[in-house]
Write a structure and sequence with these properties.
The protein has 3 domains: 101 residues, Phosphorylase Kinase, domain 1; 214 residues, Orthogonal Bundle (Transferase(Phosphotransferase), domain 1); 105 residues, PAS domain (Beta-Lactamase, 2-Layer Sandwich), CATH 3.30.450. Helices cover 37% and strands 18% of the residues. Strands 1-2-3-5-4 form a 5-stranded antiparallel beta sheet, with helices on both faces. The N and C termini lie far apart (108 Å).
Amino acid sequence: MTLHHRPDPPPSDLNQTVDIPSSNPPPAENETTRLSEAETELHVPLVDHSVSEFEDRYCFQEEIGRGGMAEVLACTDRRLKREVVAKILHEKLLTHSDALERFHLEIHITSELEHPGILPVYDAGTLRNGRPCYIMRRVWGVTLKQRLRERVRPSDFRYELLRIFEKICNTLAYAHTMRVIHRDLNAMNIMIGLHGQVYVMDWGLAKELGEGSYEPIELPPQEEVEGDPPETETANHTQYGRIMGTLAYMPPEQACGQIDCLDERGDVFALGAILCKILTGSPPYLATKPLKLLNQAKAAELADAFRRLDLCHADPYLITLAKSCLAADRNDRPRDAGVVLTQLNRYFELVLRQAEWDLVRFFDLSQELFCIAGLDGRFRRINNNFTRVLGHTTEELLALPFIHFVHQEDHANTYAVMAKLTEGKPVVNFRNRYRDSEGNYRWFEWTAKSIPEEGLIFAVAREVTDDVVKEERYQQLEGMLRKVNSFDFLFGSDVF
């Protein structure tokens, strides 16, 4: 995309740059230039070079995103030779002082938040046509909304999505400790990277809480963006004026325009809305017309969302958590994202504890010999059947390498099987002999699978001593029969 330049506008408090003498070296990557208290109050963009230097450094390319306040362009940093993105205020908003102030505030807040779940601000400045701009890391991946669309049923890969939700909560918990609220959390503002990274995007409506925090009073209404799909979640997405945010995820106090009342609990409501979408497949409010959607959000019409939650077959603990976050009265919600994260982690602990208990029962109730062993040749965990069959105590079996109990004639084959497992190859119907506490040897038949990167083997065995004895006797009888048949062939059946 080509950027059309205009002569530099006259300087103003809302659109000024800070000239740094050329003798000063540029800050290192990820380093944030600190603002003075006076500059912070004005929310001056972070700039360390002239307008011409800024545009000379970055090569602006195609548009990859667009919102009500800004467009996002793919961009190349010529100095560091890396792909980045540039977020640039819409040209039509240059004459709107509150829009300028809101964009400068977004730059300031985003640059102050240093967390793995928030894209770092690399640079900021002003283009020759006067439009403020800032540079961020580029991420390749999909939005949470796109990931959710891949499901056939809401229950599909639910655990994976809950882990993504955990990372969202972690990021918001950090922001809340920094006294920053997002105010526009939704499935479209969550990015999932190619390697599982989770980012909370678009802090354009974020606000710093506390005394002296600044809030632009009113912004121009957003025009509909061409190409947006006509879906509930995108209807009137990110409103401006006294109502800001995404209606399908919006708490009632925000929908009523009570911006002075908004705090961390507004973000908690949006977290509950995201959890509702993960569990049920849809956000809380489902009206297809923006005005109806707004009225639903204002009145906190949540009966349908709660009914869908009750019918989604998710764990009752998660349903309760979603409902508590979606409480119409903000005083009934968790205080901040940190509390939501703690409750979510408690759920994961309960799931893990239940899985461990189920494994213990499976181990102990099964008639087979189950074990977890290491590729180092030692048992890590065995069920009670090993003691029942071999007579050794659990402590004795765990204390020594298991080859210590294997018959000497079976060592070579056992080592060969261990080599296969080390390569990640499964083993089926392998037999060897283990010495019991009375010195006798018992035959075991093993099926095993390994996880080489974790150094573990999961194996099940059954005792086949009686089967082996029967097979040996059968082979002996077959041998005797062959001898008898051979004798008859050579000498005839009437020799005697």
